[in-house]
Amino acid sequence: MTVKINTKDGQIELTDDVIATIVGGAATEIFGVVGMASKNAIKDNFQALLGKENYAKGVVVKTTEEGSIAVDVYTVLSYGTKISEVSKNIQERVKFSLENQLGITAETVNVYIQNIKVVGE
């Protein structure tokens, strides 16, 4: 589905992929996030072969009939980080990025921790 924004000059349509890319980019900027967990392994592996960065990996955008959106973010976090704090930061950053870059408000941002990785050493 798409999100439609009416302006005085016309209409802007944002696809779920555009929204997911903004969300994934925002989430990966947060300290403690190692990466995104894949929700579509075949598509993501193909893009990895092409050398493309896939920020939409691990993001599911749901659009309601009223036009509001809900976002599910599937992440991999670094071992030793405070999960509740990192999750809260992801939610805040995603909401801010959507409002700032696209002018839309996410009703909910659900964060799912799919894995913990030991980084460094």
UniProtKB/TrEMBL annotation:
InterPro entries: Asp23 (IPR005531). Pfam families: Asp23. Belongs to the asp23 family. This is Asp23/Gls24 family envelope stress response protein.
